[in-house]
Amino acid sequence: MTQIAAVGPKPDAQEIRYEHPSRLTLTRRYLRRNKSLVLGLAIVIALTLFTVIGSLTIDTEKRAYPLAVKPKQPPSAEYPLGTDFFGRDLLAVMVRGIWQTAVIGLIAGAIGTGVGVILGFLSAYYGGVVDTIIRAVTEVLLPIPAFLILVIIAGSIDRKSVTIYTMALIVSLLAWMGPTRVMRAQVLTLKERLFVNVARLSGMSNLEIIFKEILPNMLPFILASFVSGVFAGIFGSFGLSVLGLGPLREPLIGNTIWFAQQQAAFFNGWWWWPLWPSLALVLIFVSLTLINVGLDELANPRVRRTE
Amino acid sequence: MRLGYLVRRILFLIAVVWVAATIVFFIPRLSARNPIRERFAEIARSTGFAPKDLEQIIAAYEVKFGLDKPLLQQYIEYMAGVLRGDLGPSLTRYPKTVLELIFSALPWTIVLLMLTTLISFALGNLLGALASWPRSPKFVKGLMAPLMMLQAVPAYLLGLLLIFFIAFRLKLLPMGGAYSQGVTPSLTLEFILDAARHQILPAISLILASLGFWALGMRGMGITIQGEDYVNFAEHKGLHPRTIFTQYYVRNALLPQITGLALAFGSVIVSGVLVEQLYGLPGLGGLLGDAILKNDYFVIYGITLFVILSIAVLMFIVDLIYPLLDPRIRYESR
């Protein structure tokens, strides 16, 4: 926008000045209206800053693991969040735990959305047998509570070898059916639009149409699906780790709560131990939901009018 | 046509259950863990009792449970057993059968999940309908944002925070367990009251976590119904607002929510599993968690099958009652 305004003829002083707000101004104005998006992003940024500043200032490599500090200390000036039964500094545990939990969510969200986009395109764009198979498989798998299957998978593998990456893979195994369905529906409506027909008549190849015409129009949906995927990934990995099925050597938010429960932290009066991870997770889940509501408004402007 | 639809629906649900059962059957078998060996190792750890001919005992048990046969044969035999209603023995709590374990745990789960789902469905839909109703007081609309936040938080976490604030800090309610220690379960009023007191916090955490789902869905439906001609017509006819609200507004907005009820059942069970685990309740969730830690295949199979079968049956029931609720839908050719 700014470039166009700058290249045009020099504005005359007498001429009526039309407002050409820059993209930045437009974005800022939009964000003022979309409060949930702003609030959600603000929480995510705050959490990111917490982990970045935390890992730069604290020795998380050492203090987030057992026997690093004095155990069972309540929050104090030396240990702002206290320490746990195993002698881990909870501040360092939180810094590292939030980061690694986020990594699991991001990987799971990316895999689920990526597979969903590919299958959705194959299914809707090419139709036929491919469509029938993909649709049948998604329809049959969707009603099965994915978490039950995840629990069984996670319970079957050797617990000592589970890393945060295997965890992310397990969680994303059953996370692609929802995105596939959404993407398929989107492609089906988009491929009948006039601009796609024009592109086809003007001799664009299928791949060109997919990448240049359809995909850009689906970005808000892909983004929303990614955010839901991250949410589901963190949700799933949290569920697994509070059952004691996650990686136990690496600090995660979920397994910090599990360890606290195992040692009966509330019963013994070490209330700070499970409290911080719980609050961190509440913040993560709430911020992702807010972002999703905001993205929904961005993608379907009609929702705005009903507010 | 109606019959054709029902048959197709039944075949679909059978496919869902069969696929789930097959996935669930094979996954634990791919692992190198041996539940019988682990059970003996545990006994050896806790009692110091370690039989000399351990390998033979383990082999004998494997023959007894049919675990020495080829996997495919075990699969076919297990599925045949399921069709006869036989879910096999528990590997780690032998001689108890899986069915016995499920039935002893089931009442706890049914009471907790049924009650919370119904309360949450009724309350959530009422709040959602009121929030979209133009005449309702402002504070109802203000409730939507907090409900949306709560809905984002897993019931397990809400449960943990409730334990901290209400049971640990304020000491108002017990921190966990299904009934007080030293009480034997019986059908006396005293016991039921005691058990009910222990169910309050788990119930609240499940209700709070699911309320927003119903409320938001209902509000969305209500908003689309507001502009409908029949609502305007009812208003101009001079009907009492309450009649319009219940007969015209809620009745129509509720329909998709009822379909949602069958689908939500899956997630209700999952949060139920975690909440039962958190509060140490003796329901299906606690049983499943325990079975997974010990890799007791048959209990895992049994509970998963049971859960998925109940979801399929519920989906089917919703299909059946839907035309009764919505006179516009008939499963017949027009």
Task: Choose one word for the global shape of chain B.
Answer: globular
Largest sheet of chain B: none
The end-to-end span of chain B amounts to: 10 Å
Task: Say what oligomer this is.
Answer: heterodimer
Largest sheet of chain A: none
Low-confidence stretches of chain B: none
Considering DSSP H and I runs of 4 or more, what fraction of the residues of chain B is helical? over 70%
Instruction: Report the portion of residues of chain A in β strands.
Output: under 5%
What would the average pLDDT of chain B be, to the nearest integer? 81
Q: Mind telling me the C-alpha Rg of chain A? A: 24 Å
Total beta-strand segments of chain B: 0
Q: What is the string of SSEs of chain B from the N terminus onward?
A: HHHHHHHHHHHH
Helical coverage of chain A, percent range: over 70%
> What series of H and E elements makes up the topology of chain A?
HHHHHHHHHHHHHH
Helix run count of chain A? 14
Chains forming the largest contact: A-B, 40 and 50 residues
Low-confidence runs of chain A: 1-6
Number of helical segments of chain B?
Answer: 12
Secondary structure tally: strands of chain A: 0
Textual characterization of the structure:
The complex is a heterodimer of chains A (307) and B (334). Chain A is mainly alpha-helical and 307 residues long. Chain A is 71% helix and 0% strand. Chain A is built from 14 helices and no strands. Chain A has helices spanning 2-7, 23-33, 35-57, 60-63, 90-126, 128-141, 146-156, 164-172, 177-190, 194-201, 206-242, 253-262, 272-299, 302-306. Chain A is flat. The two termini of chain A are 30 Å apart. The relative contact order of chain A is 0.14. Chain B contains 12 helices and no strands. Chain B has helices at residues 2-29, 35-47, 54-65, 71-84, 98-132, 138-152, 155-169, 189-226, 229-236, 241-279, 284-294, 297-325. In chain B, helix 5 (98-132) packs antiparallel against helix 10 (241-279) and helix 6 packs across helix 8 (189-226). The N and C termini of chain B lie close together (10 Å). The mean pLDDT of chain B is 81. At the A-B interface, helix 6, helix 7, helix 11 and helix 13 of A face helix 1, helix 6, helix 7, helix 10 and helix 11 of B.
